[in-house]
UniProtKB/TrEMBL annotation:
Domain ABC transmembrane type-1: 101-290
Pfam families associated with the record: BPD_transp_1
Keywords: Cell membrane, Membrane, Transmembrane, Transmembrane helix, Transport
Main location: membrane
Transmembrane segments: 36-57, 105-125, 137-159, 165-185, 213-237, 269-290
Claim: Transmembrane helix is one of the keywords in the record: yes
SUPFAM superfamilies: MetI-like
Annotated Gene Ontology cellular component terms: plasma membrane
Protein name: ABC transporter permease subunit
Topology term for the membrane: Multi-pass membrane protein
PANTHER family from the UniProt entry: ABC TRANSPORTER PERMEASE PROTEIN MG189-RELATED, ABC TRANSPORTER PERMEASE PROTEIN MG189-RELATED-RELATED
InterPro entries (alphabetical): MetI-like, MetI-like_sf
Length: 305
């Protein structure tokens, strides 16, 4: 009799009782009533402050003058020179700020859209289509992530030089229109998010494979595609190495243009960090605008039923 009153036995008996609307509401109420403890909020507060500190430091130095960073009486309160320093960055003819900003927005948006499209299409093929050599081909695609980009810079530059594309914005877009990580990410997501029975039902109804991909695969892939697109945009925005090599200094992307601020013998870090902060404002706006939709999409894709 004591074994029947044990917690394990009671849980088994409770799980065998059919689910009713009243029991479901009670369970939902209990889950919603749980609150995080003090240490959870304390840890989140520390992470939040640590995440904001680099932005505050950039604003602190960027609002001072050339002597602020080496001042022995350094103040943790911002100065009043940020707008003047930002104006210096924007009006510097060597930086060419506004064309560089447009190049970064234009190239990053196209790269993100291309990576999402090609990765979703390839991920659907690897996850839901059966064709000879699919597994070895997926392994090969994933293995390419282990190859450093620096190994392919010389032949890639020679190729674009022969095509006459050096100095053009397309030279940084074309090599990045697909991503091995994106293919792997979408393959794993679609493999779990789309049941095979749903695809078979679409085929029975007479839908072609393209129609099935568009109406089922694309809809199911939205949460993963949103995350992939956002992080691809950020990666393309911050890319410095390849644009620095292949683009002209007269028509660069924003990271390459801002590097010209410290090309002189004397570096004014208040000007440099003011420019760095200006370059992060579009990314912050992107996260503010797309952050809520991104989180809601991830949660919608994670919750079953």
């Amino acid at each position: 009799m004591s074994s029947l009153n044990s917690p394990a036995a009671l849980s088994i008996v409770e799980s065998s009782i059919p689910e009713t609307p009243q029991r479901k509401r009670n369970r939902t109420t209990r889950i919603k009533g749980r609150r995080a403890g003090f240490w959870v909020y304390a840890g989140l507060g520390v992470v939040f402050v640590g995440s904001l500190f680099p932005f505050y430091w950039s604003f602190l130095i960027g609002s001072g003058d050339s002597t602020t960073i080496n001042d022995p009486d350094f103040s943790w309160l911002p100065g009043g020179n940020f707008l003047a320093n930002a104006q210096t960055v924007v009006s510097d003819p060597a930086v060419n700020f506004w064309p560089a900003l447009w190049n970064s927005i234009y190239s990053s948006a196209l790269i993100a859209a291309a990576v999402v499209f090609t990765s979703t299409l390839a991920g659907w093929a690897f996850a839901k289509l059966r064709f000879p050599g699919s597994k070895p081909l997926l392994v090969f695609v994933v293995a390419t992530m282990a190859v450093p980009m620096q190994l392919g810079v010389v032949p890639l530059y020679i190729l674009f030089a022969d095509l006459g594309w050096t100095g053009q914005i397309g030279a940084i877009i074309i090599p990045a229109i697909t991503s091995a990580f994106g293919v792997f990410w979408m393959t794993q997501y679609l493999r779990q998010a789309v049941p095979d029975e749903l695809i078979e039902a679409a085929r029975v109804d007479g839908a072609s494979m393209i129609r099935t991909f568009w109406t089922i695969g694309v809809v199911a892939a939205r949460p993963a595609a949103a995350m992939l697109g956002l992080f691809t945009f950020v990666t393309a925005w911050n890319n410095f190495f390849w644009p620095f090599i292949v683009l002209d200094r007269s028509d660069p992307t924003l990271p390459v243009a801002l590097s010209l601020l410290q090309s002189n013998h004397f570096v004014d870090y208040s000007i440099v960090l003011a420019g760095v902060l200006l370059s992060t404002i579009p990314l912050l706006l992107l996260f503010v605008v797309a952050g809520k939709q991104l989180v809601s999409g991830i949660m919608q894709g994670a919750v079953k039923g």
